[in-house]
Design brief:
This protein has about 575 residues and is of the alpha/beta class. It is built from 21 helices and 13 strands. It has two domains: about 25-460, Amidase signature (AS) domain (Amidase signature (AS) enzymes), CATH 3.90.1300; about 500-585, Tetratricopeptide repeat domain (Serine Threonine Protein Phosphatase 5, Tetratricopeptide repeat), CATH 1.25.40. The chain has a 13-stranded mixed sheet with strand order 1-2-3-5-4-6-8-7-12-13-11-9-10, sandwiched between helices. This is Chloroplast Toc64-2.
Length: about 575
């Protein structure tokens, strides 16, 4: 939350202010309400111009609402860059970023500013000063960053779309983690004027939406695209080696896309490629970088490409922000402080080499994607890490993620992250890339393919959920045999979460609860099981046992009697009825 001084300075500028023909109807500091999942810093309204009178067509974004990452200038507001010291040492913006203005001019209403990672130097979505926006799709996992609030605001249905920025992955990653669409445009396609720079060789203005129609409408407004006929992909390349980097089963991600392509375009357009091998062959300067950083062991081409991107990003970040960092000495979270320090320590001796690698990669990858080609690869290598993890896993995740994310970063290609079902009840995503300047083509492709991809993803997700639930049940059975009843309950709970309509899962968990003398929980599980399967003898027996221990003898007797009716030779039911007969006399 901004400090009182920062808010006061913003208020002082806002009084009586109109913004380039738009008007601020109201300005309110965000309350502590959970209604926006912690995405918003504060609310305001920038109203679009009045709609044209009939018979003129309405404005293209009329009726839509959006909010912007706190990296965009909005006249009268301090652009906070995710850090309170930055906000305290900068004045309110005097001009609104063109990307924001063009959306309001197109009919959309801007309703507020959104949280982000400090200095845009993270893909986690966590901020030690302002908190972490809650991922609506997976509340116990990170939302992704640095455009964390932008993704969460859309995923939580607070706005129809939102603006973020993507330098190394800050739109694509949170889109994947929150289960929504996220578009990184071709580098240079949208003005970054009025946007705080991170590293200008890679900075782009990106956007989020829940549906492909809105994604396309916003894209047309931002990119100022003239009308042209839509085109179908002539070739769809599946980056096989990139999917091998992913820990998510390929069938659940790329399988949905492959089946969709076959349905929509036919098998003949599908081809497979080892993208790393292609890059190694066609970006010769990577060999020189490998010599400089290798200890003798070979380094993969995608890792080398990622390293080149990170080195150039550090250098440009240093050039942009060194003076402020050394003067303001901001309090940064430990992981971001380490990256900032690495940038400040960066020497210029490798800059010309990594710029050459960028130029070679840009030519090679765009040449690969000529003639209406789409490249398919994972957006990220795994589901989002859980909140608060500080061990080695996030560092490993970050490295593998940037192996993938660097492809469009170093090539300048446009890329869209598309949700494709779930894995372990967490969103998964796939990315489609097109050559630089083919943003309309990519937006049209998503609009056409999205419904089929979702249909195929749902089928795969349903099949996986059933298999995963059975696996969780078997783990529960194994733990039960080992008399680790708490662990068994945990596994059975996982199974229920993946398939809540399976009576066996409730029955098994009830048995584990009985072993722990948790009779009320056991009774509830058996009641749920009987709601799903009225002929479950085990459910009647276990609920009867729970009720007997709770002192509900008549109800227990009824359960055991029903079990005996369903299975007349059941010894447990007979013995229980004989025992209860004495208690009920």
């Amino acid at each position: 939350m901004p400090s009182d001084a920062v808010v006061a300075r913003s208020i002082g500028v806002l009084l009586g202010l109109g913004i380039a023909g738009f008007f601020i109807l109201r300005r309110t500091l965000k309350s502590s309400s959970k209604k926006d999942n912690g995405a918003f810093i504060y609310y305001f309204e920038l109203l679009p111009p009045p709609p044209p009178p009939p018979p003129s067509a309405p404005l293209p974004l009329s009726g839509l609402t959006f909010a912007v990452k706190d990296i965009f200038d909005v006249e009268g507001f301090i652009t906070g860059f995710g850090n309170p010291v930055w906000a305290e040492t900068h004045e309110p913006a005097t001009v609104t970023a063109p990307a924001v203005k063009v959306l309001v001019e197109a009919g959309a209403k801007c309703v507020g500013k959104l949280h982000m990672d400090e200095l845009a130097y993270s893909i986690n979505g966590e901020n030690k000063h302002y908190g972490t926006p809650v991922n609506p799709a997976a509340p116990n996992r990170i939302p992704g960053g640095s455009s964390s609030g932008s993704a969460v605001a859309v995923a939580a249905n607070c706005v129809d779309f939102s603006l973020g920025t993507d330098t190394g992955g800050s739109v694509r990653v949170p889109a994947a983690f929150c289960g929504i669409l996220g578009f990184r445009p071709s580098h240079g396609a949208i003005s970054v004027s009025g946007v705080l720079p991170m590293a200008q060789s890679f900075d782009t203005v990106g956007w989020f939406a829940k549906d492909p129609k809105t994604l396309r409408q916003v894209g047309h407004a931002l990119l100022q695209l003239p009308y042209s006929d839509s085109k179908q992909p002539r070739r769809v390349l599946i980056a096989d080696d990139c999917f091998k980097l992913s820990l998510i089963p390929n069938e659940d991600v790329v399988g949905a896309v492959i089946r969709s392509v076959q349905k929509l375009l036919g098998r003949q357009v599908l081809q497979y490629i080892n993208l790393g091998d292609f890059i190694r062959r066609n970006v010769p300067s990577l060999k020189e970088l490998e010599k400089e950083i290798s200890n003798g062991s070979p380094i993969g081409a995608l890792t080398l490409l990622r390293t080149a991107m990170q080195l150039l990003q550090r250098w440009e970040f240093k050039e942009n922000h060194q003076e402020w960092l050394e003067n303001a000495k901001p309090d940064l979270s430990s992981d971001i402080a380490a990256r900032v320090q690495a940038a400040l320590d960066m020497k210029g001796d490798q800059v010309s080499l990594v710029q050459q690698i960028r130029n070679e990669a840009r030519f090679a990858i765009n040449d690969l994607l000529k003639n209406d080609t789409i490249l398919v690869m994972p957006t990220v290598p795994d589901i989002p890490p859980k909140l608060g993890i500080k061990a080695d896993f996030p560092d490993e995740f970050r490295a593998r993620a940037f192996d993938l994310l660097s492809v469009s970063g170093m090539s300048g290609c446009c890329q869209v992250s598309v949700p494709v079902g779930e894995y372990n009840n967490v969103p998964t995503a796939v990315s489609l890339l097109a050559k630089r300047g083919s943003d309309r083509f990519l937006l049209d492709t998503v609009l056409t393919a999205y419904p089929t991809i979702q249909e195929e993803a749902k089928g795969a997700s349903d099949r996986f959920s059933a298999e995963a639930a059975e696996m969780a049940k078997e783990k529960g059975n194994a733990s039960f045999k080992e008399k680790d009843y708490k662990k068994a309950i945990s596994h059975y709970t996982d199974a229920i979460r993946m398939d809540e309509n399976n009576a066996t899962f409730y029955n098994n968990r009830a048995m584990a609860y009985l072993q722990l003398c948790s009779f009320q929980e056991a009774e509830a599980d058996c009641t749920k099981a009987l709601g799903l399967d009225k002929k479950s003898v085990k459910a009647y027996l276990r609920r009867g046992t729970a009720r007997e221990f709770l002192g509900y003898y008549k109800e227990a007797n009824d359960d055991f009697r029903q079990a005996q009716i369903l299975e007349p030779t059941n010894k447990t039911a007979s013995e229980a009825l004989a025992r209860l007969k004495k208690l009920l006399i």
